[in-house]
């Protein structure tokens, strides 16, 4: 099977489960707490590996004990960690997360070592682009490094997927021409294009050079533009939404798995919706993602 390089963030998530978000100045008692593997890059790498996709992660952890947690959870899920290095000065990236009774989350990130994934790091790791077929990346590491990695990806003949989260203003439009599949949610799409109109936004991004735009619409599902229309694929219904943290990451991995296996966007979106439906029914990000064998594939038909 085609191999994926995931370039991105590695965080440890500190998650409080609350009935509601606190007001400024208020102290609230949470009903549960967990320390989980997180970071959009690590989450997506783990979700892919759990779907049996050969996956190598490029990124940085810190010089602290949290790095052991991160490296072992990536490795135990089947991710190749030979592209991960240890910072000598920063701590491992972390995220403080509140999850409310509806399973929605609020996240504050401290980048730590993720902020050190600089252009030099990309140059030193160029050899990993040799035998991969796809590059998947997000916006939780410096933008200059992302741009260089996308350039290397095209130089080495890789297809590219970009999760534009957390969304940033892009001042250099060069980036778009290197992206084959962009997977924003509705908020990110609006932020990147300054329009609420989904079809118009997709057309703007395509005119800038993105080949395909897949829009994640949360509980509505996801879709893409097909012959001038927005083709929506509804989300897979679940009994109870427990925690949506990482659902977007799981969606992206499901989509990429579908593209690797079938090369067909509608089928890949349906697979993405299905895999994400598992992740929202459990607490935590990476730990909530399904193994390939756990998935009820009949639900696709
Ligand atoms: O996408 C969810 C992830 O965003 C969390 O795991 C957190 O670490 C942040 O990177």
From TrEMBL:
Its cofactor is Mg(2+). Requires a divalent cation, most likely magnesium in vivo, as an electrophilic catalyst to aid phosphoryl group transfer. It is the chelate of the metal and the nucleotide that is the actual substrate. Substrate binds at residues 11-13, 39-43, 140, 249. The gene is rbsK. The keyword Kinase applies. It is found in: Cytoplasm. It is an enzyme of class 2 (transferase). ATP binds at residues 185, 216-221, 248-249, 273. Residues 1-290 form the Carbohydrate kinase PfkB domain. Transmembrane segments: none annotated. K(+) binds at residues 243, 245, 279, 282, 284, 288. Activated by a monovalent cation that binds near, but not in, the active site. The most likely occupant of the site in vivo is potassium. Ion binding induces a conformational change that may alter substrate affinity. Gene3D superfamilies: 3.40.1190.20. Belongs to the carbohydrate kinase pfkB family. One of its GO terms (molecular function) is ATP binding. Its EC number is 2.7.1.15. Pfam families: PfkB (PF00294). The active site is at 249 (proton acceptor). Catalyzes the phosphorylation of ribose at O-5 in a reaction requiring ATP and magnesium. The resulting D-ribose-5-phosphate can then be used either for sythesis of nucleotides, histidine, and tryptophan, or as a component of the pentose phosphate pathway. Keywords: ATP-binding, Carbohydrate metabolism, Cytoplasm, Kinase, Magnesium, Metal-binding, Nucleotide-binding, Potassium, Transferase. One of its GO terms (biological process) is D-ribose catabolic process. It comes from Candidatus Sediminicultor quintus. This is Ribokinase. It comes from the Bacteria.
């Amino acid at each position: 099977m085609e191999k994926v390089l995931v370039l991105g963030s590695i965080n440890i998530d500190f998650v409080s489960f609350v009935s509601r978000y606190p007001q400024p100045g208020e102290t609230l008692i949470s009903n549960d707490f967990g320390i989980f593997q997180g970071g959009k890059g690590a989450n997506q790498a783990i979700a892919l590996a759990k779907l049996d996709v050969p996956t190598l992660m490029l990124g940085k952890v810190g010089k602290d004990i949290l790095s052991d947690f991160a490296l072992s959870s990536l490795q135990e899920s089947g991710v190749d960690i030979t592209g991960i290095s240890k910072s000598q000065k920063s701590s491992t990236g972390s995220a403080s997360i509140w999850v409310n009774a509806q399973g929605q989350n609020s996240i504050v990130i401290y980048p730590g070592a993720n902020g050190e994934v600089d252009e030099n790091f990309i140059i030193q790791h160029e050899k990993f682009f040799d035998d991969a077929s796809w590059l998947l990346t997000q916006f939780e590491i410096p933008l200059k490094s992302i741009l260089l990695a996308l350039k290397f990806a095209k130089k080495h003949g890789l297809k590219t997927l970009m999760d534009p989260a957390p969304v940033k203003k892009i001042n250099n439009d060069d980036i778009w021409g290197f992206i084959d599949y962009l997977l924003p949610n509705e908020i990110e799409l609006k932020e990147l294009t300054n329009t609420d109109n989904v079809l118009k936004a997709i057309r703007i991004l395509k005119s800038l050079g993105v080949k395909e735009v897949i829009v994640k619409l949360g509980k509505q599902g996801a879709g893409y533009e097909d012959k001038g229309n927005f083709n929506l694929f509804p989300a897979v219904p679940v009994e109870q939404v427990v925690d949506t943290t990482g659902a977007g990451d799981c969606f992206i991995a499901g989509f990429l798995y579908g593209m690797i296996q079938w090369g067909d966007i509608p089928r890949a979106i349906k697979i993405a919706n299905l895999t994400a439906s598992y992740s929202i029914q459990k607490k935590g990000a990476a730990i909530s993602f399904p193994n390939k064998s756990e998935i009820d594939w009949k639900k696709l038909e």
